């Protein structure tokens, strides 16, 4: 039985029927907003916690703050001009849309055709993807990038790099989209982009201090695991929101996501045990991430068995590039990529894109794209569509090359521009001291860390002599530990 409308009116003289037009599918809208929120939680607090706990103690605040700032700054840039440059209908060039604001209710409350929810939902959903991309780039730069330089980098990179990739691959008018490149939910636009951009920016910023590179232990492994858990579970919304509907393809994407991540974790853990004799929780986290990244371009267009195969590859190939090749190739060894985003995102994202070209199943592609023109190479062999399969595989590789070239060039130009305004790198004093020198705050202020209250900018007039005897004794006892 239908319930009557409640006897009140919404702001702007919109009654409840105006707020629920005939074209609105409440299930799709609710799911899309939920999925967007889950992706947002991957960043805040997920990556904020992960970054703040996986770094050395003196960099906990700065690392978390880089992620927090990026999340806020991207939102303002996104509604100001970024969304229309990525997903707008007005074209500036064949690879990018015309900048314009996404703030007017006349545009935000109408249907985002062909989907059954308002444009405001799409703006929010795509914002959290843009935000996490910048935060992933930050992972390569932790422990030495000048915070002012980072404040400039975020809006510039979003404007001149992210929007180009998003428009080209995801916008219906984008040249790579029209060519037929498959990127279900961001293996190219988000992960390959962030991995390449982070590695490139790390080159221009320079390495951490020798002491930090030689020894950089996590300050809290349990909190690191909590952040990683938020990242893993949040991926339900990441890939589950890809079809823009609460439909069967979304369910398939969610299942494949978790199957691949679990397989990748187990493979990475097994390789650690075979070659190093111990299972590492940090290694397990890397395995989770590479599995999630690898399945992202394929989540809703491959079968479950393919997700397991992709998990095997994502748990082994990035493991090999990180644990073996990294030490042998001078370029990888010399560039200081703090969180190894090149391996976990660029390598895993490229791997996922190529495997999508092999395993993309025509019927599942028809659920997502509305046609069966996309076909993986293995299905091309099976269905006597070898040419179509080879074409899809070639398109996937071509898309990878485009994203790599785009991000190397644009990231380099942005870093060189910023370097003309402010230093890309912290001062030697800031590199030595860490959070207290950069932000005037420390994540862990305990006596055994040698906290000197008289030198803190917030407590310059205090001394242990001013504290009660019991407090002084506790401090002295901890210094002896």
TrEMBL record:
The keyword Nucleus does not apply. The chain crosses the membrane at residues 30-52, 59-81, 123-142, 147-168, 188-206, 218-238, 250-269, 281-299, 305-326, 338-360, 397-422. It comes from the Eukaryota. GO terms for cellular component: plasma membrane. Pfam families: Ammonium_transp (PF00909). It is found in: Cell membrane; Membrane. Residues 30-444 form the Ammonium transporter AmtB-like domain. It is a multi-pass membrane protein. GO terms for molecular function: ammonium channel activity. Keywords: Ammonia transport, Membrane, Transmembrane, Transmembrane helix, Transport. InterPro entries: Ammonium/urea_transptr, Ammonium_transpt, NH4_transpt_AmtB-like_dom, RhesusRHD. Belongs to the ammonia transporter channel (TC 1.A.11.2) family. This is Ammonium transporter.
């Amino acid at each position: 039985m239908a319930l009557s409308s409640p006897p009140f009116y919404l702001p702007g003289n919109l009654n409840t029927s105006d707020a629920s037009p005939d074209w609105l599918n409440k299930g799709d809208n609710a799911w899309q907003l939920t999925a967007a929120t889950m992706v947002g939680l991957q960043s805040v607090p997920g990556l904020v916690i992960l970054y703040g706990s996986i770094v050395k103690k003196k960099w906990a605040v700065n690392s978390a703050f880089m992620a927090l700032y990026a999340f806020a700054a991207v939102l303002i840039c996104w509604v100001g001009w970024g969304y229309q440059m990525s997903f707008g209908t007005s074209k500036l060039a064949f690879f990018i849309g015309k900048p314009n604001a996404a703030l007017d209710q006349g545009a935000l409350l109408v249907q985002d055709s062909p989907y059954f929810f308002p444009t405001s939902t799409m703006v929010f959903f795509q914002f959290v993807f843009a935000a996490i991309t910048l935060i992933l780039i930050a992972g390569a730069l932790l422990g030495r990038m000048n915070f002012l330089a980072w404040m400039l980098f975020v809006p510039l990179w979003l404007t001149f790099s992210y929007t180009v990739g998003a428009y080209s691959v995801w916008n219906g008018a984008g040249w790579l989209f029209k060519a037929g490149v498959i990127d279900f939910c961001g293996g190219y636009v988000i992960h390959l982009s962030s991995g390449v951009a982070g590695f490139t920016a790390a080159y221009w910023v320079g390495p951490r201090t020798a002491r930090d590179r030689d020894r950089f232990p996590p300050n809290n492994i349990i909190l690191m695991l909590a952040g990683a858990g938020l990242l893993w579970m949040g991926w339900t919304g990441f890939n589950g929101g890809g079809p823009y509907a609460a439909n069967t393809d979304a369910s398939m994407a969610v299942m494949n996501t978790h199957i691949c991540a679990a397989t990748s974790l187990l493979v990475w853990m097994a390789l650690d045990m075979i070659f190093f004799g111990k299972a590492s929780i940090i290694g397990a986290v890397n395995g989770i991430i590479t599995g999630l990244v690898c399945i992202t371009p394929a989540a809703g267009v491959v079968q479950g068995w393919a997700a397991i195969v992709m998990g095997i590859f994502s748990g082994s190939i990035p493991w090999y590039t990180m644990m073996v090749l990294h030490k042998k190739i001078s370029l990888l060894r010399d560039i200081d990529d703090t969180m190894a985003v090149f391996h976990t995102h660029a390598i895993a994202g490229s791997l996922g894109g190529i495997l999508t070209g092999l395993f993309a199943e025509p019927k599942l592609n028809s659920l997502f794209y509305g046609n069966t023109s996309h076909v993986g190479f293995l299905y091309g062999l099976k269905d006597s569509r070898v040419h179509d399969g080879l074409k899809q595989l070639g398109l996937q590789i071509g898309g990878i090359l485009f994203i790599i070239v785009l991000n190397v060039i644009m990231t380099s130009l942005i870093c060189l521009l910023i370097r003309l305004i402010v230093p890309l790198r912290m001062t030697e004093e800031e590199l030595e001291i860490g959070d207290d020198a950069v932000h005037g705050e420390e994540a862990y202020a305990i006596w055994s860390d040698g906290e000197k209250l008289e030198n803190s900018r917030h407590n310059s007039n205090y001394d242990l002599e001013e504290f009660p005897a019991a407090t002084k004794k506790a401090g002295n006892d901890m210094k002896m530990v």
